[in-house]
């Protein structure tokens, strides 16, 4: 049981990190689009 809960904790931490990275990548893409629009 302890090993299983440990794994789920690790997975939830990895999931949170993945979501944060995904959000930052989306924000970067949006910023790039905004910069392109301003340059035009």
DSSP helix fraction = over 70%
Taken as a percent bin, the fraction of beta residues is under 5%
Q: What is the averaged pLDDT score?
A: 87
Order of helices and strands: H
Ends: how far apart?
Answer: 59 Å
Content-based structural category: mainly alpha
**Rg, Å, rounded:** 17 Å
Number of helices: 1
Describe the structure.
- With 40 residues, this protein is mainly α.
- It has one helix at residues 2-39.
Topology:
Blueprint: H1 2-39
Short description:
By secondary structure, the chain is an all-alpha fold.
Any key phrases for this structure?
about 40 residues, mainly alpha, single chain
């Amino acid at each position: 049981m302890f090993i299983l809960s440990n794994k789920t904790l690790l997975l939830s931490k990895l999931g949170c990190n993945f979501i944060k990275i995904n959000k930052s990548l989306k924000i970067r893409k949006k910023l790039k689009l905004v910069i392109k629009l301003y340059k035009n």
